[in-house]
């Protein structure tokens, strides 16, 4: 199973479960996570979703091996929801979403924090938005959500530099609420989730709706702009050089590219 699901005290825990691939999202995991969020949103017995990863990573982002195949062979079948469907499920999720970043988070493993209502991070975890290193554009409405969450300059550095962000830096920026000892991460995240889950679901939903509704149109507009830019750049020379370099185990060379 690429996604583990468990329920306790009205908290549904979703655990990304591709540890051999550092929980990178392939089409199957995108679909499973989107379906799980849709199910949790409709389930009257679920008050809060807690999202984390199995093994030493939270998520290494999109599976670049599959991404390369999709970029070079447009005829390959896609998932039911895919990346865009997961982003829509996150944007529309009506209940509190708590994220526990247990290890490295790359790409969607970082930008998903824009949709978190509470986020906690292990002290030894790291984050990266590798978009410019892959020759592509931002994703998951991060071009809107990150400046709103951490301020323009922190967001610009995260989205433009493709540099690693430590747990301490993530907390200082405002990407996460609290940094925890790795052994205590899930206990801390779960304790906060259970505090929320003890409240009336109708009230939780109303509070979240009043916080997110003013931004709904802007999030969707950002998603559409990003998707258009991503589609234009995916498969272009810079992206193909980045993917080829990854497959060959070398650093990409963009020096001759615009």
How would you characterize this protein structure?
By secondary structure, the protein is of the alpha/beta class. It has a domain at 3-182: Alpha-Beta Complex (2-enoyl-CoA Hydratase, Chain A, domain 1), CATH 3.90.226. Helix content is 47%, strand content 16%. The protein has eleven helices and ten strands. Strand 2, helix 1 and strand 3 (48-53) form a beta-alpha-beta unit. Helix 5 packs across helix 6.
Q: Helix and strand layout, with pairings?
A:
Blueprint: E1 3-8, E2 11-16, H1 27-42, E3 48-53, E4 57-59, H2 64-72, H3 82-92, E5 97-101, E6 104-106, H4 108-111, E7 118-122, E8 126-128, H5 142-150, H6 152-161, E9 165-166, H7 167-173, E10 178-180, H8 185-197, H9 201-212, H10 216-233, H11 237-248
Parallel strand pairs: 2-3, 3-5, 4-6, 5-7, 6-8, 7-10
Antiparallel strand pairs: 1-2, 8-9
Helix pairs in contact: 1-3, 2-11, 3-10, 5-6, 5-10
């Amino acid at each position: 199973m690429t996604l583990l699901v468990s329920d306790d005290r009205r908290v549904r825990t979703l655990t990304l479960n591709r540890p051999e691939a550092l929980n990178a999202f392939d089409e199957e995991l995108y679909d499973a996570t989107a379906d799980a969020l849709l199910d949790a949103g409709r389930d009257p017995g679920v008050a809060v979703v807690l999202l984390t990863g199995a093994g030493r990573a939270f998520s290494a982002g999109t599976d670049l091996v599959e991404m390369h195949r999709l970029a070079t062979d447009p005829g390959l079948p896609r998932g039911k929801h895919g990346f865009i469907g997961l982003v829509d499920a996150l944007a529309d999720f009506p209940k509190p979403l708590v994220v526990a970043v247990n290890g490295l988070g790359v790409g969607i493993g970082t930008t998903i924090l824009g949709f978190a209502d509470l986020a906690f991070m292990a002290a030894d975890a790291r984050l990266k938005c590798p978009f410019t290193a892959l020759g592509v554009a931002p994703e998951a409405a991060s071009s809107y959500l990150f400046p709103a969450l951490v301020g323009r300059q922190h967001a610009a550095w995260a989205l433009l530099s493709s540099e690693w962000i430590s747990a301490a830096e993530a907390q200082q920026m405002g990407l996460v609420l609290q940094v925890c000892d790795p052994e205590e991460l899930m206990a801390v995240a779960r304790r906060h989730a259970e505090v929320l889950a003890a409240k009336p679901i109708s009230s939780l939903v109303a509070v979240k709706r009043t916080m997110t509704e003013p931004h709904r149109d802007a999030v969707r507009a950002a998603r559409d702009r990003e998707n258009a830019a991503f589609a234009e750049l995916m498969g272009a020379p810079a992206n193909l050089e980045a993917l080829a370099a990854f497959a060959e185990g070398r650093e990409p060379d963009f020096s001759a590219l615009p």
